[in-house]
């Protein structure tokens, strides 16, 4: 599901960690409702790009726009309020809070909880009878699902996902793919996902973009018969 309207635009962005430059004048656009898989070997700037979009890293040059709004200089919490949900590679859960409380943290109003949870509960039935359980007692796969569930509860216009399938069983990966496809079909949500699991990436995404040393070096349609071979070649070299 795509449209001609641009949801996310990264324009000539340079970013990194203190004196270390990782992204070098990178530009890319994602249409509203489009899903893009960002692939490449480790250390090529993929996570840096997501953290830069979210405002966790400063932009040395360039601009970031969300649904036409310039968010370049905004702090992370204001960028989130502009309509972006972020599921990072490192678990950003509160282990000493319950599942319910972790899910509720993504909501502007606590009164929205019942309606929002009722919508996602069929996708994540494992949480229905366990809302009072502490998040720190969940398995790794369940914690990943909780991260995605919290993002969906926000009803964002854009979701950023960083290696969400890493270390997960195939059955959990399939459930996450179904959840993201459901979200796109129901709400037209835009997705940008970093992913090493190529079959998962191609199942969820419309398009793939290959990042190497802070530059986009290749991109193509996820529906192309040669897409998987092209991505695996880039990951191998």
Structural features, described:
Helices cover 32% and strands 28% of the residues. The protein is an alpha/beta fold and 237 residues long. The protein has one domain (6-236): P-loop containing nucleotide triphosphate hydrolases (Rossmann fold, 3-Layer(aba) Sandwich). The mean pLDDT is 92.
H/E series, N to C?
A: EEEHEEHEHHHEHEHEEH
CATH topology title: Rossmann fold
Structure summary, number of beta strands: 10
Query: Helicity, in percent?
Result: 25-40%
CATH architecture: 3-Layer(aba) Sandwich
What fraction strand? Answer: 25-35%
Cα-based radius of gyration, to the nearest Å:
17 Å
The top level CATH class name: Alpha Beta
Distance between the termini: 32 Å
Regions with pLDDT < 50 over 5+ consecutive residues?
Answer: none
Question: CATH superfamily assignment?
Answer: P-loop containing nucleotide triphosphate hydrolases
> Helical element count?
8
How many structural domains can be distinguished in the coordinates? 1
Mean pLDDT: 92
Shape: globular
Main sheet properties:
6 strands, mixed
Secondary structure layout:
Layout (H helix, E strand, L loop, with lengths): L5 E12 L2 E12 L3 E5 L6 H8 L5 E8 L2 E2 L5 H6 L2 E4 L11 H6 L8 H8 L19 H14 L4 E5 L7 H18 L2 E5 L3 H7 L2 E6 L2 E7 L5 H10 L1
Parallel strand pairs: 3-8, 3-9, 6-7, 7-8
Antiparallel strand pairs: 1-2, 1-4, 4-5, 9-10
Helix pairs in contact: 5-6
């Amino acid at each position: 599901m795509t449209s001609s309207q641009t949801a996310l635009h990264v324009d000539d962005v340079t970013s990194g960690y203190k004196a270390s430059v990782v992204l070098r004048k990178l530009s890319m656009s994602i249409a509203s409702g489009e899903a893009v898989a960002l692939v490449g070997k480790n250390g090529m700037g993929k996570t840096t790009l997501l953290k830069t979009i979210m405002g966790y890293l400063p932009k040395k040059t360039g601009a970031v726009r969300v649904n036409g709004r310039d968010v370049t200089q905004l702090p992370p919490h204001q960028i989130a309020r502009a309509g972006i949900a972020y599921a990072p590679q490192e678990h950003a859960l509160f282990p000493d809070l319950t599942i319910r409380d972790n899910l509720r943290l993504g909501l502007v109003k606590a009164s929205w909880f019942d309606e929002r949870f009722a919508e996602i509960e069929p996708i994540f039935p494992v949480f229905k009878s366990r809302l009072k359980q502490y998040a720190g007692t969940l398995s790794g796969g369940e914690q990943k699902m909780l991260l995605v569930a919290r993002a969906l509860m926000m009803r964002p216009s854009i979701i950023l996902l960083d290696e969400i399938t890493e270390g997960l069983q195939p059955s959990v990966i399939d459930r996450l793919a179904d959840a993201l496809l459901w979200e796109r079909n129901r709400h037209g949500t835009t997705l940008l996902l970093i992913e090493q699991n190529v079959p998962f990436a191609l199942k969820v995404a419309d398009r793939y973009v290959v990042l190497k040393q802070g530059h986009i070096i290749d991109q193509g349609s996820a529906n192309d018969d040669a897409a998987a071979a092209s991505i695996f070649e880039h990951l191998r070299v």
